[in-house]
Amino acid sequence: MTSTATPSGAPTSPDQLSAAARDAIVSGRASLGIEFGSTRIKACVIGDDPQSVLAVGSHEWENRFEGRLWTYAIDEVWSGLQAAYADLTADIERRYGVRPEAFAAIGVSAMMHGYLAFAEDDELLVPFRTWRNTNTGAAAAELTELLGTNIPLRWSIAHLHQAVLDAEPHVADVAHVTTLAGYVHWQLTGRKVLGVGDASGMFPIDPATRDYDAELVRRYDGLAAGRVPALAELLPEVLVAGRPAGELTAAGAALLDPTGALRPGIPLCPPEGDAGTGMVATNAVAPRTGNVSAGTSIFAMVVLERPLTAVHHELDLVTTPLGDLVAMVHCNNGASELGAWAGLFGRFAEAAGQPLATDAVFEALLGEAVAGDADAGGLLAYNHLAGEPIAGLDEGRPLFVRTPESRLTLGNFMRAQLYGVFGTLALGMRVLDGEGVALDRMFAHGGLFRTAGVAQRMLAAALDAPVAVGDTASEGGAWGIAVLASYLAHADELSLTDYLDDRVFGGARIDVADPDPADVAGFAAYLDRYRAGLAVEAAAVAAL
Fold first, then answer.
1. Last residue of a domain, one of 236, 266, 281
2. Is 390 within 8 Å of 299 (Cβ atoms)?
3. Phi/psi class of residue 495: alpha, beta or left (left: φ > 0; alpha: ψ in -120 to 50)?
4. Domain check: are 164 and 71 in the same one?
5. How deeply is 222 buried, as exposed, middle or buried, from its count of CB atoms within 10 A (0-12, 13-18, 19+)?
6. Mind telling me which InterPro entries this protein's record contains (predicted)?
7. pLDDT digit string (tens) for 77-95?
8. In angstroms, how far is the first alpha carbon of the chain from the final one?
9. Residue range 468-520, pLDDT digits in tens
10. Under a CB-based contact definition with an 8 Å cutoff, are residues 83 and 456 in contact?
């Protein structure tokens, strides 16, 4: 394991830091990022040093299952945004004794994909349909064949075309379709635009033009002619990072801050999706880099040097905020099953009269994983609480399997559970290997990597690539979109890659784990068993 760190030159004493932060806020030099996540709306302010978070605010919200579709109420978008912003300004006032009246720039990010359809008079035609809906199978299959590229169930074009196939009454009135980030940005600025990364979850992007693929647009317009307007009329304008995307209007300022303190005229960067802000937050926007996010689900983003040679159902093609192609491996199941086992062992410690904090339980168990055999001793673990399309499973059944010859030890058990977190991800990443995609480094983030080194080491083995873990991006996508907002002032002089390398991550502490050859061979053996054992998993779904 190696570490790198560079002095940032920022003030070091608490008083200096507080004074500099206060000055940045009072003078309007700070940048604001807002992200609509699946369970929280977060606001984050950064100052002259983009790496430094000055204040944060948040508001919890939940999706609803209504009419057999997952949705969020539109009025909760605005009440939630106002609550998160109010929480942010309260944090600023507590820390610095001031309330913000202006920012250098603002950025909006949100969950990618989904479907927000509006009439000519800007009326919302049907409730917001989120990325979580899977009713678009027929449309996705037809579009994948027509366009010659994988169209996932959650993409906006799949939602639109499914509505066309189902002859939904609202289709006749559709005049504009956008994502959640695009909708909020539109209401704040009056501009119907979208960052290229978020747009790539609506319709395929041509990396040469950094815009919707013109040939594929022509094909879809031919298919849907007479049923919906041309896509050029329906979809938002596409902008790359650094391009001006409008200014906060008086109406937009009142939507964000009903107290009236916030002044209009603040520039906004192009609105982006959570995948794009995650790439920024992990400095993974250059070819041959990528990031892995591990939580309830797990996904990997890999920036490509060239287009893929074939269509693969395991891979979604999206883009960076600059418009470079990215292969996305998205798995529905992440670390939840591992957490359940940690909870069981934690309860055992408590019952034995030796209670441990959750982090201490993980530290002890993951430490045992390091001591396990490289191939987990022949043990096998599936973390499938939900269905897993990459593995060919419509439903999931968590399983732990061993043979009489397996070596059942705590170390092997925990290594098998960790390997299981990365199993389906590795299946998708092996498809990229087959395409000859090279990786210089993957950046890992998520609570699984809080225990120093262990999950990072196992992921390096699974990917056979160096895995970096850093101490930046503590606020995730909200911080990432704040960084994109701050980049507006530097786009004429620096590329986004150089801005991130030099101005944002130059002083970041980063730990890099190189793949251990023994671990790489051990995981490969485990994955062979994992792939063969999917028949057992499928049988469990059928029987149970």
1. 281
2. no
3. beta
4. yes
5. exposed
6. ATPase_NBD, FGGY_C, FGGY_Carb_Kinase, FGGY_N
7. 999 999 999 999 999 999 9
8. 43
9. 987 654 467 899 999 999 999 999 999 999 999 999 988 778 889 999 999 99
10. no
